[in-house]
Fold:
Amino acid sequence: MDRFSFLNAAHSQLIEDLYQQYLKFPDSLEPSWKAFFQGFDFALENYSDEESVQYIQNSVNSTPVVQQVSQAASNGEIPEHIKKEFKVVNLIEAYRTRGHLFTKTNPVRERRHYTPTLDIENFGLSSADLNTKFNCATETGMKEPSTLQDIITHLQHIYCDSIGVEYMHINNVQERDFIKQWLQVNENHPILNANEKTEILLKLNQAVAFENYLHTKFVGQKRFSLEGGETLIPALDQLISRSSQLGVDEVVLGMAHRGRLNVLTNIFGKSYKQIFSEFEGKEFEEDVFSGDVKYHLGSSKKIKTASGEEVSINLTPNPSHLETVAALVEGICRAKVDDKYKDFSKVLPIIIHGDGAIAGQGIAYEVAQMMTLEGYKTGGTVHIVVNNQVSFTTNYMDARSSTYCTDVAKVTESPVMHVNADDAEAVVHAIHFAADFRAKFGKDVYIDLLGYRKYGHNEGDEPRFTQPNLYKTISKHPNPREIYKDLLLKENVVSNELIGKMEAEFKALLDKDFDASKEIEKNVMDRFMADDWTNFPLGKRGAVQEPVDTKYNLEKLKELAVKMSTLPADKKFINKITRLFENRLKAIEADNLDWALGEWLAYATLLSEGHNVRISGEDVERGTFSHRHAVVKTEDTEEEYIPLRHVSESRFDIYNSHLSEYGVLGFDYGYAMASPNTLTIWEAQFGDFVNGAQIIVDQYIAAAEEKWKIQNGLVMLLPHGFEGQGAEHSYARLGRFLELCANENMTVANATTPANFFHLLRRQMKWNFRKPLIVMAPKSLLRHPKVVSPLEDFANGSFQPILDDPNAEAGKIEKLVLCSGKLYFELLAKQEELNCDTVALVRFEQLYPLQNDAIEKIFAKYSNAKSIIWAQEEPENMGAWSYILRNFRDTGIQVIAPVPSGTPAPGSHKMFEKNQNAVINRVFDRDDAPAKRPVTA
Structure:
């Protein structure tokens, strides 16, 4: 097909318009048009042979240049050398687009073969053209027209050496041009002086020698070594140093176990003797802490870079669950920006991935999608993949369908550099690019360090079971230090004497610390981000049971209530919103505050006392059940108005998240980890959706304090209650949370009055320590006529973990019924219907920790009762029953609940009514027909 056939069908005015567009915005054109106009301009400006002169003379002088193009194309008059110019432009574009497929980036394997190749024959060129000069050479950064051979050599150096670059998927012209220009400097190779090269060798020596020493001294112990990827250490060193010169004051790093000990010692400065002592498996000083394995621990330090800048660096503690820590890193960084720096450029998130994990774990995508979201952006993250080419035992071909493990980067149009991890200078060069691009554009960058794993998944594993050929190659392959050492010796940058001295001094230091480690009796766990938690000592055992003053002046409370419920008169909102706020003012005047008002008052009072509030989750601005309306919009322009931002100078932030539980809960947990003075809330759209984030719950919320001495005051609001909606949307997995409760590690509540919820939230910030709070949040109770509280209960009350039956006469009670949540109001309705005075209904508003002294008083008060019942609407094998039985097994307590089931609730509304009615009837020893209930929430 004729390469220029597309011109024949084009109207001349269209070509004229396209040409003018090309002159102003060349990258906005479709590639074939852009290539055509590039080639035409080059030829027209630079060729003056007879063929071109004849071609121009044949054209009408008054005709625009683009019409000359159109006429020439129609007549078949475009000279061959102009066509060739276009073909070379296409070749250049191919190197930019596909050059990364033909690089020297794999240190231990041949690269896969991709077609079509970059052979010139595929572009309509031949060896006869190699010595022909082409003007488009200047498009690649060359200073003047050059031969095709020189252009190819130049492009090979830029795009096909130790670094492969993916950036042509980026639509932003400014970003793409920046990358193009950056790569063309010194043909995408570093310019380093002797001191810089020696510093790289020093960090490589520390990385390699440390791993070798551990391998010798602690044979067979798991350490998840970095061997095969040791260039990560100079990479991190250079990234921190370069970024600090670009304005970064604090770094937050998240990584899994591979190479973590090396990073802790050689980047964070954790003493070698402390690491050696942890290898001995000694206990930690504090008995209350379980501690964790050495390759999960965190660290926080202030360091001075080689260029003299002081930087705070933090390594976030992590579990074995890969990629989980990434979400926390982003949350920590956002909190530091919001609270301290007010500038995204000041805090740098770095996430180190494994190749299998970034390709296989869905949370990598959830976190990537946060990059530009208003409530979750952090100014760009540097992602570094330690690419071993093997996931435990799985070959990379079985670990993903995509070409690269980093292909998630294309979702956010982030640049990727694939680097041969054996080429230390190329690694440093790629890291410099990452720092520069992130600083300029505030976007994510991905660096794929293509190396290998010297041993198995852990040092006791045999990799030759599954990759015998690969590990035959690896066993003979020199480590990056030896490769770089040989290079520097050839360049006369270092001498054998200097290298010998460097290695001997480091070995002596390791020996000294190894001996000193023997004298350590018990290991000490450093507190992560201790400076942020100076005013928050760890809570002593029993502290969560002590009363806390959560009162608030009644007059000021009413003033706040009116202020937050009054919309500005100069803005027009839809009628429903106007009426809703008018009704709130009426409820305040009537001293009858519902759930939404109680919740708002908790936020408003905390804001007025200097605390910040952050709420995040799916649809939280309005609320899943349309009760909150924290953000309202004007009718005509959709201008946002946030009433709670007008009650105080403190910060009130509320963000609808993207449709993610795992990533967003992890983000908000990280936020709370770095911001103890902020009431940080994550709300699930429905409570059962929390099971999509179970790893955050198990590994952090329940366990972080015992494993790592980390406090966290995150609040989780989980809408919960059985209301005929089917198997989903009913059950927030209360039983799972109670199963995780121990050693006062969290609080689990199921409040049923607005005032109690108010005091529960305020208590969260009035404690001088922090614990996670899990709330079984209401749905139908949001608008229940009995779920209201007077202002007096807010102003002068306190959180009540147990609510006694206000109408019971102890001497008449034959059955003591303990329950929690919405079921209470259904039992109360039946009690009132029957006018029953022999059953006492007692609510457990806080399920963990149990307020045992208050419960003992309840038991003593109703000591004449013939039976004690725990009533629940969850199936018997779910809910709180197993937990209640474990705590009250000596009381003879019995349960009334639906039968055990593998699903929380039936799909049939009639079956739900039957089950719910059976529970209520059994409490009162009745057999009444079920009452009609609408499907709610």
Remarks:
- The two ends are 63 Å apart (CA to CA).
- The CA atoms of residues 2 and 189 lie 39 Å apart.
- Residues 1-11, 48-63 have pLDDT under 50 and may be disordered.
- The longest strand covers residues 347-354.
